[in-house]
Amino acid sequence: MKILGVLLTPIFGLVFYFLLGIFHPIQWISLKIFGYNGHKKVVDFLNFLLMKSTYILGNRFVFENKFQLPENETIVFVSNHQSMFDIPPLIWYLRKFHAKFVAKKELGKGIPSISFNLRHGGAALIDRKDKVKALETLEKFAKKINQKKWSTIIFPEGTRSKGDTPKYFSKAGLETILKFNPDALIVPISIQGSWKMFRHGNFPLGVFNKISIEVLKPIKASSMDLKELLESVEKTITQSVLAKA
Fold first, then answer.
1. How many domains in the chain?
2. Which domain holds residue 179?
3. Residues of the chain with pLDDT > 70: what percent?
């Protein structure tokens, strides 16, 4: 399988970075001419193609959602994080909820398409080295998604886990989001299998992996004490991930 990865990874890389390159000016044009909605549709389609491009490696995504989630209401999607390939399927499958990311500010420059979307698509770019400024940015973001009835996707682990077991959840960001969105719906998401694409490092990428993404039972933020809520969300996600390991 590793030998096959050596053969297929360069082909995948060419397709992946071609998509990022060609969609960068398309994003700029769509934003200037059609505004937020036009730009968002382009970003959604880009991430659909990025997700499908992993088929070159024989990988496949399985998305499962048994719940009827409300639209035009702020939802806080809380997910474990195994690789950068978690993001395209989340953007695509959750596109109708206008879900925005909280990301480190370094991602806001230097990456075709991705950096442009983070800067102009509504994401919060956090300076991890400046806790005061990071908190101010997060508070503005929390107020904005409340005002616009957007949603957000949070990875409380902070950095990607490199195996089946999720890392400890840092809850500070979630606490800030919920402070300004006390009536939000919390939706846990478990992701399993995407770490296997990097089991050999950045090269070669793993092939013929199944990446499972499951939407778990929603919880109304106001239904329980904050500490109990955050612990419940972490436990729910961890148990789901380990059950699929």
1. 1
2. 2-244
3. 100
